[in-house]
């Protein structure tokens, strides 16, 4: 819609995003120095549990790195990057044994609802486009109606 390069937009957001994360970390640290009771105290995890937790999150990080790395390095476009991400997620959940028909059905339904909502927003914000689509639809219906009338008169 904006006719801008997705790669350039991601590059433009990278440095401000990193700056925002660092500033939030500093703000939280200062807040906890002033009000230490507001911070939560937890038990330290053993090293084995940390490794186990990281191994569960690693596929998500790997998918993100492949998608963004391929996008930044120019191996594929934003649409292709999304397709690569979907395929990688399907592969990972298949190997984990979590790929079920109900899961795919829910994912497809959610996608249909989301894409339909986005198209409705785009069509609704461009009144000329909506009028054009309506005109083309009515023109096609009129053509079918006219062909149906001619067919009945001949036979």
Features of the shown structure:
single chain; 155 residues; mainly alpha; 5 helices
Characterize this entry briefly.
This protein is mainly alpha-helical. The chain has helices at 6-34, 47-72, 78-95, 101-125, 127-154. The two termini are 50 Å apart.
Tell me about this structure.
This protein has 155 residues and is an all-alpha fold. It is 81% helix and 0% strand. The protein has five helices and no strands. Helix 2 runs antiparallel to helix 3. The longest helix is centred in the N-terminal third of the chain and has 29 residues. The two termini are 50 Å apart. The model has no long low-confidence stretch (mean pLDDT 85).
Number-wise, the strands total 0
Oligomer: single chain
Number of helices: 5
Give start-end ranges of low-pLDDT stretches: none
Give the topology:
Layout: H1 6-34, H2 47-72, H3 78-95, H4 101-125, H5 127-154
Helix pairs in contact: 2-3
């Amino acid at each position: 819609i904006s006719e801008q390069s997705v790669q350039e937009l991601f590059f433009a957001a990278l440095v401000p995003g990193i700056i925002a994360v660092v500033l939030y970390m500093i703000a939280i640290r200062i807040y906890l120095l002033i009000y230490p009771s507001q911070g939560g105290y937890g038990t330290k995890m053993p090293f084995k549990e940390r490794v186990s937790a990281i191994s569960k999150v690693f596929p998500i990080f790997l998918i993100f790195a492949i998608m963004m790395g391929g996008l930044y390095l120019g191996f594929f476009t934003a649409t292709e990057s999304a397709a690569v991400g979907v395929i990688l997620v399907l592969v990972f959940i298949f190997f984990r044994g979590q790929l079920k028909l109900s899961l795919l059905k829910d994912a497809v339904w959610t996608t249909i609802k989301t894409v339909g909502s986005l198209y409705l927003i785009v069509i609704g914000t461009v009144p000329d486009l909506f009028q054009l689509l309506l005109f083309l639809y009515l023109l096609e219906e009129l053509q079918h109606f006219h062909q149906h009338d001619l067919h009945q008169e001949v036979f």
